[in-house]
# Entry
Amino acid sequence: MKICTTLLIIIFMLSGCAVNITADSFIYQDDKVEPSLDLIQINNKITHDATLIDISKISLTTPEGLLLNGVKLLHKNAQVNVIFFAGNGMKISQSAGILDQFALLPANVIWFDYRGTGVSEKRSNLSVKDLQNDALNIFDFSKENLPDNLPTAVHGLSMGSLLASYIASERAIDGLILDGAISTVPELIDNLVPAWSTVFSTVTVSPELAAIDNIKLIRKYTNPLLFLIGKNDSTTPVEFSQALYDASNSKDKTLTIIADTEHSQTMKRQQAIKAYATFIKGLTCCEDG
# Structure
């Protein structure tokens, strides 16, 4: 995972120093924007129900004029619209295989690369507020560009869980999926920074990052909620998801712990797909009375 790798590099280079983790060092950014997505290559990754799936490129321009690019997966038998927010450094060009797992579900999916990652444009400075504003713009775009007769769920993986919960606090959504969820950024960094490094370095978190508290956000959300977490996840361990689950005031919440699974690997497991399908059924089963 790029979060873990970045932090370890910083600590090795700055041993004996005071290390302050900021948004620019915490959030992965490419050196340059990729030219475009290869739809042929992406479509070739779809092996499940390929005849039912249509994938196209999508773009939106933020109010500040930044171009974000992504993909839209339409399933002919869709029962739900899913807006997907990926992990830190997880870009469509390298991780499109997850769309094949989504193809197992009756779901339409929209997924944008984060600003400065993959095929989305970059600015010189990056802040948490930038990503939060982008997330809201992506949500609003998705509501306008997916069927309006289906419920809308937001799925956040790892760092994306912070944005998914933020959207749930700012917009009306029908369902929320937190996958390998982060509880708070300071807890994540404490978990990732090896204990021996504190002998040589003092690691602090910038106020901007320290203020991100997924537990506070999740307390405000009361609609259906699904947690997916790998039992062997050492990056965002089960304890993080358990704390969020316990804090949630949702009356319809499920914590699914996936056996023999590491970080960001849940969607590759049949147990996760089954839990997801059950979650979708719960969002749609009673709409017709």
Remarks:
- The longest helix spans residues 128-145.
- Residues 230 and 265 are 7 Å apart (CA to CA).
- The radius of gyration is 18 Å.
- The chain has one domain: 37-184+212-284.
